[in-house]
Design brief:
By secondary structure, this protein is an alpha/beta fold. It has a single domain (about 5-250), classed as TIM Barrel (Alpha-Beta Barrel). It is built from twelve helices and eight strands. An eight-stranded parallel beta barrel has the order 1-2-3-4-5-6-7-8, surrounded by five helices. Helix 1 (about 15-30) runs parallel beside helix 2 (about 50-55) and helix 1 (about 15-30) packs parallel to helix 12. Bound molecules: 1,3-dihydroxyacetonephosphate. 1,3-dihydroxyacetonephosphate binds next to strand 8.
Length: about 250
């Protein structure tokens, strides 16, 4: 079944104490019975164990921000999918535009990361989205299609059912510019159509497609009310408990 999800990508923010404070506020205020969606926190990896402890005692779920394509070995500084699994991590973001831009991550590498995560029962949140020049040239549909084709469309039907897609137009990330609800719906529907063409209608209907890019408590309701927007991947607005909880309540 298609899940509604609000995931907070903390990026490289928060000290240990601040992380504990935010997790405490989230865990205390999430009411199991009133939750309208899955609520996921994706803290920096050094806080994943802490986040997992909070998740044990609350309705929170935990996601990583990145994972290695390798299983284990001499890869200094990397974190493997098996390590994430051993800390009860549920999800892991891959292919965020910041990783593509600053760390040269390619779709082929992301395909390997998706495989590694699925091998360890972690649900990949696969990010895609165009830069401003691509939108201006009106090639954003092609760009997203290529990212999905090369990054996750090699997966089998069974595997693909454990993938979440996040559409994040790069021009909307951290800029205060948000895709309009119509723009978001248009490309989310396009993505769902691609999934239907590649797999089938049932899998497409069951795939969660999240929107990311300057999503906040003020605009989440309108974005999430679009037929093909199943929630959000939230950056800046996930760093404050009140705001993040309001977003999670916006369905
Ligand atoms: P902002 O919500 O800060 O624009 O970031 C979005 C994002 O990159 C989430 O992964």
């Amino acid at each position: 079944m298609r899940k509604k999800i609000v995931a907070g990508n903390w990026k490289m923010n928060k000290t240990f104490e601040e992380a504990e404070e935010l997790l405490t506020a989230l865990a205390e205020n999430l009411d199991d019975n009133k939750m309208k969606c899955e609520v996921v926190v994706c803290p920096p990896s050094v806080y994943l164990e802490l986040a997992s402890d909070f998740a044990d005692e609350s309705a929170l779920q935990v996601g990583g921000q990145n994972a290695s394509n390798h299983e284990s070995g001499a890869y200094t500084g990397e974190i493997s999918a098996s390590m994430l699994e051993s800390m009860d991590v549920d999800y892991c973001i891959i292919g965020h535009s910041e990783r593509r831009k600053y760390y040269g991550e390619t779709d082929n590498l992301l395909a390997e990361k998706a495989n590694a995560l699925l091998d360890h029962d972690i649900l990949p949140i696969f990010c895609c989205g165009e830069v401003i020049e691509e939108r201006e040239k009106e090639i954003h549909f092609e760009v997203v299609k290529k990212q999905l084709t090369n990054g996750i469309f090699h997966l089998s039907e069974d595997e693909f059912q454990n993938v979440v897609i996040a559409y994040e137009p790069v021009w909307a990330i951290g800029t205060g510019l948000t895709a309009s609800p119509d723009q978001a719906q248009e490309i989310h529907a396009f993505i769902r159509g691609l999934v239907a063409d590649k797999y089938n209608n049932e899998i497409a209907e069951n795939t969660s497609i999240l929107y990311g890019g300057s999503c906040n408590a003020g605009n989440a309701k309108e974005l999430f009310s679009q037929a093909d927007v199943d929630g959000g991947l939230i950056g800046g607005a996930s760093l404050k408990a009140d705001e993040f909880l309001k977003i999670a309540d916006s369905f």
